[in-house]
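Project channel, design review

CF: Before we commit to the Neisseria weaveri constructs, I'd like one complete example in the thread so the newer folks can see what an input/output pair looks like. Taking Sec translocon accessory complex subunit YajC.
RD: sounds good, go ahead.
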Amino acid sequence: MIDFAYAADAAAQPSVLMQFAPLALILVVFYFLIMRPQQKKFKAHQAMIAELKQGDHVILASGFRGKITKVNEQYFSVEIAPRVEVEVERNAIASKVA
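CF: and here is what came back for Sec translocon accessory complex subunit YajC:
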């Protein structure tokens, strides 16, 4: 009688693969809903920064809007008001204004 109870209990145990299936499903959903779109957005932002040139109008991450006056390897000089230029890092450019 006791052997039958152990056999019934062992048959009710799900396999190891079935135990990890929900975790794997969560990781796949996390990748496609969060990580992949962020990677695409980051690549698009890097491409936009690489294309910027003198005379382009941009919006900075701080919210200022200005025109690029000088392009350096690491920095941009942006005119935010007449005769007021600030030097910002490349990543401080939020977007390009058409």
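RD: helpful, thanks. The chain has two helices and five strands.
CF: The radius of gyration is 27 Å.
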